[in-house]
Amino acid sequence: MDATTDQAEQVVAGSALHAGRLITRIENGRADARAVLRSLAPHCGKAQLIGVTGPPGAGKSTLVSALIRELRGRGRTVGVIAVDPSSPFSGGALLGDRDRMVESSSGDSGVFIRSLASRGASGGLAAAANDAVDVLDAMGKDVVIVETVGVGQGEFDIARIAHTVVLVLVPGYGDALQAMKAGITEIADVVVVNKSDSPGAEQTFKELAAQGFQRTGPDGGPPWPVPVLQASALRHDGIAELVDAVDEHHRFTGRTAWRTAHEHARRRARFIAFANDRLREELLETAADARALTDPYGAAEEFVTELIEAHRRLTAHRAAGAETEQK
Amino acid sequence: MSQERIKVLLAKKKIDVHGRGTKLIARELRDAGMEVVYFRFGVVEEIAEAALQEDVDVVAVSIMTSGQMQVARELIPALKERGMTDVLVIMGGIIPEVDFEPLRELGVHRCFPPGLPGGVVADYIRENVGTATLA
Ligand code: B12
Ligand SMILES: Nc1nc2c(ncn2[C@@H]2O[C@H](COP(=O)(O)OP(=O)(O)O)[C@@H](O)[C@H]2O)c(=O)[nH]1
Ligand SMILES: [Mg+2]
């Protein structure tokens, strides 16, 4: 058995050691990891994918911990990918999400938690997040939860990965909340006002619940009325209702064009990421090294024009070949 | 294009309230370009589980309220059992220097006394990561 198949099989068999190491190689952009991912593909697509986003300090990690406990109580295994920002200065990162999840996962082989640093990626996730989710999916986790960085805005990448995006808000954000309302319909499938144990929660909840948010579906998909819930992650209040709402959304989208559109979007993202990686490694780096680059803009323009022209000619040549064959 | 980063698990007992030292070390390592998973453990097994899932290069344990021997006695076998045999294990905090050698014998690669100038821990990690074994 070659190394790729062996690694893939170990992951599918549930080896935490192999899954952990594979995710590291994905983070490091290693070509051998892509081969393993390809072997894993037939084992992917079974997990329910939940995104958890919202401003820093809203209680996302604590809520994920509560979700772990609730889901485990219902007999479902859980994988978690938690992303924190990298320092733009040193490239290092403090990854603190796991700390909040220790109690609900301790000694439980049904839970796998992995922290990722964003490593400069914008959009609230790490470049490796999409593939890391696949690894946990292939491992056989029933549910995979992804916690975003939580800058609060522009975190649209999560919508491309998760079946259901849970937006966590807290009382007392005032103006920030007003600003976020505009974004809610673009990203949130379920809104939860966390820290219901603290003052102002009821007010914020009522205000949001009165909005009647709706998400418009893709072509042919019916709209989804976004439920607004309240919870206390710390006290485990409202968590069962949250899981029910997430499951309801999952069932709803599964019956409609939503799911097809979502799956297509993920495949598309994967094609672009894979192609992008290989082009950069095997073409761009060499091309850059081979040029003087006194005029980098001009050189790039010229290089890309050449590539497109070459690809156009190849396509035409292939089409001609196919025609001759048919005759 | 190398995107490799040194990843460190920085663990501290949940019941230990001393937080300044670990925060300082965590920032120092981050500023040295490392990715630091900070977390508080209840039982030692949690460190090994976390090290495995996070696939860290270094396990660093902060000991402020004693118990270092017991932690080492449980931690090293727990790591080995899971196949984490190439991880660098270090300890720091308030550990009497007489314990340094016995801890080394248990498999802890290096213990750091308090009051070190900044950069010492990061330099040690950079120099020794990838070369360590838990034989
Ligand atoms: C402040 C302090 C407290 C504060 C903590 C506040 C807080 N939130 O952090 C309070 C008052 C709460 C406290 C409580 C207690 N404390 Co106290 N506390 C101290 C004190 C005075 C300073 C600690 C400190 O913050 N130092 C500053 C930081 C920056 O330094 P540091 O923690 O040593 O960390 C550095 C290094 O050790 C190292 N380091 C630390 N961790 C790691 C990890 C790794 C991997 C590495 C490489 C390096 C490393 O790097 C850091 C930077 O150089 C020390 C005495 C002392 N001088 O050290 C006692 C001390 C640590 N406390 C002690 C004790 C006994 C207690 C109590 C049990 C007291 C009691 N009987 O109630 C309780 C513990 C309660 C509990 N469950 O944890 C003892 C520990 C004795 C021991 N280990 O044998 C000490 C040494 C005092 C003494 N001489 O007796 N304490
Ligand atoms: N009062 C209260 N505090 C909470 C609740 N959930 C989380 N917190 C606290 O909010 C802070 C930030 O939590 P964390 O989960 O790290 O937030 P994140 O940054 O969104 O991941 C922590 O101090 C938590 O203890 C809750 O339901 N009620
Ligand atoms: Mg968090």
TrEMBL record, chain B:
Protein name: B12-binding domain-containing protein
Cofactor: adenosylcob(III)alamin
Residue span(s) of domain B12-binding: 5-135
Signal peptide coordinates: none
Source organism of the structure: Thermobifida cellulosilytica TB100
InterPro entries in the record: Acid_CoA_mut_C, Cobalamin-bd, Cobalamin-bd_sf
Keywords: Cobalamin, Cobalt, Isomerase, Metal-binding
GO MF annotation terms: cobalamin binding; isomerase activity; metal ion binding
Chloroplast as UniProt keyword: no
Statement: the UniProt record of this protein carries the keyword Isomerase: yes
Membrane spanning stretches: none
Gene3D superfamilies documented for this protein: Cobalamin-binding domain
